[in-house]
UniProtKB/TrEMBL annotation:
PANTHER family: CYANOPHYCINASE. GO terms for biological process: proteolysis. One of its GO terms (molecular function) is serine-type peptidase activity. This is Cyanophycinase. It holds the Pfam family Peptidase_S51. InterPro entries: Class_I_gatase-like, Peptidase_S51. Keywords: Hydrolase, Protease, Serine protease, Signal. The keyword Ribonucleoprotein does not apply. Residues 1-20 form the signal peptide. Belongs to the peptidase S51 family.
């Protein structure tokens, strides 16, 4: 028999508004069935660990999973002499994914890619997403994902709407590196032209919109300017208001940062760290001028909570299993 000892450490953080729906804390898609919430997996880049790979397949339904893999951040059809040469290249690069269906580990698997932004509103192109239980985005350049799949804000494409429905019906959407960056509504980009010893400049565009109240940093490290530029953007509430088009949304924004070889599994307001490295959560003060930084170790889980008429609470769960 397995017993679970649960220690809850409640960290109270000042906030100046109450959100009735817990899902609104991260802007997570509201599930069609509350008993079957979907999931979002944010991988920080670098090697995708076996734990992350297997958890994604599990969340998608295991042997009944229908997986769609989008390699467009890293591979362009225009760079190959034909579709078959393109498929040969992505099959070689992502062999562990491509063989899932052949080995009976999932019900179906397919790559979905385009260079043409018009395809994002094509019923034929997005058809595989309508029955998908899991969608994964590779690394590469997040600007390629923005260009191909994201509508002129605040309009969304059929591709974006179909992604949202995957999560709403209980499926999982995930990605690594650029794929992670593109999942929220605000997609972070960074200028690499500054002096490498000074903080770099945060640049932002629009992503898929699956997390409306969070900004995400991948390849996170507390040196080389990445911490400074991320925190600067998170503190800039007026700029975040402008990017979202929702006055007041900036002061509610949560920062999620993931190191390489780590992943953050999000189910509504429950967050779990898997992989071999850490994830970090940044919560804003009441006046949005300061941030509280929470470092999460592998296998650590937390919940974000909003209490009526009281500060926001982050519940840190330290779970010990006794066999």
């Amino acid at each position: 028999m397995r017993f679970r000892a649960l220690i809850l450490t409640i960290l109270l953080l000042l906030s100046d508004s109450w959100l009735a729906a817990d899902d609104a804390l991260l802007g997570f898609p509201k599930p069609n069935d509350d008993a079957k919430p979907g999931a979002i997996v944010l991988h920080g880049g670098g090697r995708v660990t076996d734990e992350t790979f297997e958890r994604f397949i599990e969340l998608a339904g295991g042997q009944e999973a229908r997986i769609v893999f989008v390699p467009s951040a890293g591979f362009r059809l225009a760079d190959y002499r034909g579709k078959q040469e393109f498929l040969n290249a992505v099959n070689l690069r992502y062999g562990s994914w491509a063989k899932l269906a052949r080995e009976g580990k999932v019900a179906s698997f397919q790559f979905l890619a385009t260079d043409n932004p018009a395809d994002a509103d094509s019923d034929l192109f997005i058809k595989p997403l309508l029955n998908a239980t899991g969608v994964w985005f590779s690394g590469g350049s997040q600007l390629r994902l923005n260009y191909r799949f994201v509508g002129e804000f605040p309009q969304t494409t059929k591709f974006q709407d179909a992604l949202m429905e995957v999560v709403k019906r209980g499926g999982v959407v995930g990605g690594t590196s650029a794929g992670t960056a593109a999942i929220p509504e605000i997609m972070t980009l960074w200028s690499e032209r500054e002096n490498p010893d000074s903080p770099e400049t945060a640049v932002a565009a629009h992503g898929f919109g699956l997390l409306r109240n969070a900004i995400v940093e991948q390849h996170f490290q507390a040196r080389g300017g990445r911490l400074e530029r991320f925190c600067k953007l998170l503190r800039d509430s007026p700029r975040l208001d402008e990017l979202t088009g929702r006055p007041g949304s900036g002061r509610l924004m949560v920062g999620l940062a993931i190191e390489e070889s780590a992943a953050l599994v999000i189910r509504r307001n429950h967050l779990e760290v898997i992989g071999d490295a850490r994830a970090h959560i940044f919560l804003k003060s009441s006046g949005s001028k300061s941030l509280t930084w929470h470092e999460l170790d592998p296998r650590e889980t937390v919940q974000l909570r909003k209490l009526p008429g009281a500060p926001t609470a982050l519940l840190r769960e330290e779970t010990a299993l006794v066999r």
